[in-house]
Amino acid sequence: MIKRDELLQLGQELKGELYTDDTMRTLYATDASAYREMPLAVAIPQDESDLKTLIRFARQHKTSLIPVPQAPPSQDR
Question: Which pTM value belongs to this model?
Answer without folding.
Answer: 0.82
